[in-house]
Each structure stands twice: as C-alpha cells, then as structure tokens.
Amino acid sequence: MANTSRELNYVTANRFYVEIESNITACFTECQGLGVNIKTEKFAEGGVNNQQRVLLNPADFSDVTLKRGITDDLTFWNWLNKILTGAIERRNVNILVFNQAGETMQCWTLIGAVPISWKAPSLSADSSTVAIEELTLTYEGLKVDKTRSGGASILSGRDSSGSFSSN
Length: 167
Known about the structure:
Blueprint: H1 2-8, E1 11-20, E2 23-32, E3 36-43, E4 53-61, E5 64-70, H2 75-84, E6 91-99, E7 104-119, E8 131-138, E9 141-145
Antiparallel strand pairs: 1-2, 1-6, 2-5, 3-4, 5-8, 6-7, 7-8, 7-9
C-alpha cells in the first residue's frame, strides 16, 4: 500500500501544463526562470559587535520563459495582440505539474502576469501541430500551492494593498 501511495505522488518535471482563463491552454516541454530574489541591506549597529542588522527589500520576481509549447488555442496570441494594440490585460497564469496518475501535484500561480515576448517555431510542412517556440511572461507575484486556482483574467483590479488577488 505504501508503495502505491509513493508512486502516485511522484512528481515528474516533464508533464506540465499552462492554465489561463480557467482552462488548460497549452502543454510546454520547458519552463525556465520561476524564481524570486530578495535583496538585503546589511549594516552594523553601533555598540553591537556580535551581530548585524539585515533589512529586506521588496521581492524581485524573475521572468518566466515557456518553451516548445503545443496548443490548438489562440489564447496566448490573442492576449499578446491586445497588448500590442495598447490594451494591457494582466492575468493570473497557472503552471501545473501532474503526477503519474494525472493528479495536480503542484501549481505555480503567476499573479498579474503579462506576456513580454512571443516567438513562433520554424514552419514545417510535415508538422500537424500548432506550436509556440517561446513565450516569456513577467509577473507581479508568485503563489505556490498543491491546488489549481487563480487562472482567470483579472478584471476587478487591485485590492486595497495594491496587489492582484491570486484567486
């Protein structure tokens, strides 16, 4: 019994999908850049020689690049096209990882995401799939969870703290 449970919870890095507008819109083979960096300022307090003080600056979220995507959906292009025409639309984007049983094991929600780069693949006459070579997203916040939530467009704006909700 314990063996079955361990197998079901085995997370594979090569099975992940991207969800926008509460629908899985694409499957990508590579995701780079998920991360956060908090820079610090360190200083010595007068008379305290055995410690230092550490101030934390605001978080800096790195851009995420999704590579070699397969989809038959124009959601990404339509979203980028709105930005090209001047209508900036921020969305929460879920990057989902599944286990071998197809259950959601981890979900990274990019909060307030905006596409900043889109690259089409080389066109080939013998290919029958619609692909995205690279899609780069910048975002305002990150939530990591074991459930799916927050993949919808952000229409309500920011809350009183100035943040977009992750739900």
